[in-house]
Design brief:
4-stranded parallel β-sheet; alpha/beta; globular; 32% helix; 100 residues; single chain
């Protein structure tokens, strides 16, 4: 996360699982729109893909100018869909969780 955000608990955590698809991930991230940026956070969980560096750069660039936190986490090994889903939820702090 490139900015400091207030420690207020977000209402919604938007959890995104990522593996080897930075272009598709960027398209997805650009669809996030809110009139209440203080109520959301975006959590991207990357599942140890060969394109991990590109995905990290994509998320970092996307989150640089957003008024809400964009959090990025990398798994040290590939956990598969279910394991990556659990990791995303583990890092989320919202009252509600939405998966994209």
């Amino acid at each position: 996360m490139s900015k400091e955000f207030a420690k207020k608990q977000p209402l919604i955590s938007i959890c995104i699982l990522s593996y080897n698809r930075p272009e598709t991930l960027l398209r997805l991230l650009r669809t996030i729109d809110t009139k209440r940026p203080g109520d959301i956070e975006v959590v991207v969980s990357e599942d140890h893909s060969p394109r991990q560096k590109e995905i990290h750069e994509t998320v970092t660039q996307f989150g640089a100018d957003k008024p809400y936190p964009v959090l990025y986490f990398e798994n040290k090994e590939n956990l598969g869909y279910d394991g990556n889903l659990c990791e995303a939820v583990r890092h989320a702090s919202g009252t509600w969780i939405v998966f994209m």
